[in-house]
From TrEMBL:
Residues 1-22 form the signal peptide. This is Uncharacterized protein LOC108038857. It comes from Drosophila rhopaloa (Fruit fly). Keywords: Signal. SMART domains: DM8 (SM00697).
């Protein structure tokens, strides 16, 4: 019985160590641009691997507010980033759905450090994110260690058409390591 309990304790310790020394995401830089039609102000800063955002909405965020995510990787000795995958999501639908996804898990974790709202419409006002760090469990297993760039374009309309109306662009560079 003691050997069995010792094995359980060892497995638990190994699992905890794996979480501590597991993957890490280090934010390197971030930049943004925004449309004054939708935002009075939007700022993104990264200090000591902690992300901060401040934004003032000019108008409510309504259903139909979408995001185009483009995750890019720069291979060793390469000058440019290459797109690994991209996806378009309806922001209101993703945040309010019961279904869990990688993007929803990021948003859910961010809400612990912010006053972001889960439902639409998001009313005019001041919103913030303070001292958020991406946890090791928030990366997809297929992502290899390396330099990444995430580009997110928030918009209304249909991406890449005349109805496309850009509201916000974010670019975040990070390093993923084991």
């Amino acid at each position: 019985m003691c050997k069995f309990l010792a094995c359980i304790v060892f497995v638990q310790l190994a699992f905890q160590i794996d979480l501590v020394v597991g993957r890490s995401v280090e934010f390197v830089t971030g930049s943004c641009s925004y449309s004054p039609k939708y935002f009075k102000n939007f700022s993104l800063t990264i200090v000591e691997n902690l992300m901060n955002m401040d934004m003032d909405l000019n108008r409510p965020i309504q259903r139909g507010f979408k995001a185009h995510f483009d995750i890019q990787l720069r291979l060793a000795n390469a000058k440019n980033f290459q797109s690994m995958f991209n996806q378009k999501n309806d922001v209101c639908a993703v945040t309010s759905s019961v279904k869990n996804s990688l993007f929803k898990s990021w948003f859910k974790d961010m809400t612990k450090y912010s006053n972001f709202m889960y439902n639409c419409p998001v009313e005019v006002g001041h919103y913030y994110l303070r001292n958020w760090r991406m946890g090791s469990s928030m990366t997809h297993k297929f992502l290899i260690p390396g330099e990444y760039r995430g580009k997110v374009s928030f918009f209304y309309g249909k991406y890449g058409t005349k109805s496309f109306e850009e509201a916000l662009n974010l670019t975040i560079d990070a390093i993923l390591s084991n």
